[in-house]
């Protein structure tokens, strides 16, 4: 349910222009916070954004006896796991449904306490989001898992043992599960078909600073030699390449010009190539990247999402809004999540022409081709967008609706905007800084 405070009126048609800053990655920071549980001694994490996922993990860690306090510099957290303890199940349960991070507490809690209780998980509704890989991995390390009311209870009767694991798909979460568990397990763990996203590399950097021994091969194999003890870390989180790409897409769709301070070329190379093919312009310096619409018409493209180093699925939804403004037929094949294109129906209501297909369109066949999921799209453009009423469906879909509303003629009402706070720090202020004409019906103009 959304209330009046959760609705944003967007008066479209103004190009977004100016500068915003992105801080640490939403898909790294909460995991680095969990890693602090493994150390003997405090850890310092810098460049931490103020987003809901960080607050949820902070709450969960505090429930388990970790003290979390601000450090000396803005955006710094000091996490001290000296007095880790079991949390009250009812308290943990209160976090049920709020995030997908709790599953990653399993390994660290099993090492520290010998048991763990994990509530039902939340996260965006963009497909089934199963956690079977996670539990299979934990079983291979020697954990037992029992379903209890409101969640899963795990036990490690003995010290967890390193093992050989091959993931059925290079899952980001399952790879992190293995890393956070293997570093203190007895012996060597060999993980093949691992995910190798930049956020995973950064988590590996965190763990190495703590004393872990982790080697990455070029063929998606990660080898972890377990150690007996880890210390704390001092780390500056890599910046949020997904948020940066969202603002880049906003610049393109609104014919604007945005300097994204903190955006990094290295983690965005695939996005930048695609942005250039669509006709977007960018300029990279040491502090960030400027993105803009250079005038003229945009080009239709064929796009396939994939695990890193492919085109990241989280970049897809915001860019699709820009593709509604490109001349010709664009093809989008979503191969990571089976239902990440449902958000396009609201774009069609605004005047876009986007047709969804169950077949794998474009390049290669994916896991979803035979399974009846609407996971390919043909976007035909350019189409004028008109303001409309819409409800935020998920984090990236929600930001995409903001972009569409900003690019549209007239006024839109975007309901459920609070969900965007899960992963976009201070987005209302950023919109204001970029000259967006938006207001809360309750009176707060931004
Ligand atoms: N999968 C399974 N079983 C599992 C785990 C995953 O079948 O046990 C499948 C999923 O259903 C999906 C695929 O594997 O089809 C990939 O899922 P993955 O595990 O890689 O995703 P995740 O770890 O749950 C993280 C990010 C997502 C991002 C994906 C892919 C976090 C908190 N979330 O999710 O971010 O899309 O990796 O890169 O790190 C977002 O930021 O909006 C977001 C959804």
TrEMBL record:
Pathway: Cell wall biogenesis; peptidoglycan biosynthesis. It catalyses: phosphoenolpyruvate + UDP-N-acetyl-alpha-D-glucosamine = UDP-N-acetyl-3-O-(1-carboxyvinyl)-alpha-D-glucosamine + phosphate. The keyword DNA repair does not apply. Belongs to the EPSP synthase family. MurA subfamily. Gene3D superfamilies: Enolpyruvate transferase domain. Residues 11-431 form the Enolpyruvate transferase domain. PANTHER family: UDP-N-ACETYLGLUCOSAMINE 1-CARBOXYVINYLTRANSFERASE. UDP-N-acetyl-alpha-D-glucosamine binds at residues 100, 314, 336. Pfam families: EPSP_synthase. The active site is at residue 124. HAMAP family: MurA. Its EC number is 2.5.1.7. Cell wall formation. Adds enolpyruvyl to UDP-N-acetylglucosamine. It is found in: Cytoplasm. GO terms for molecular function: UDP-N-acetylglucosamine 1-carboxyvinyltransferase activity. One of its GO terms (cellular component) is cytoplasm. One of its GO terms (biological process) is UDP-N-acetylgalactosamine biosynthetic process. Keywords: Cell cycle, Cell division, Cell shape, Cell wall biogenesis/degradation, Cytoplasm, Peptidoglycan synthesis, Pyruvate, Transferase. The modification 2-(S-cysteinyl)pyruvic acid O-phosphothioketal is found at residue 124. It comes from Streptosporangium nondiastaticum. Phosphoenolpyruvate binds at residues 26-27. NCBIfam families: murA (TIGR01072), PRK09369.1 (NF006873). This is UDP-N-acetylglucosamine 1-carboxyvinyltransferase.
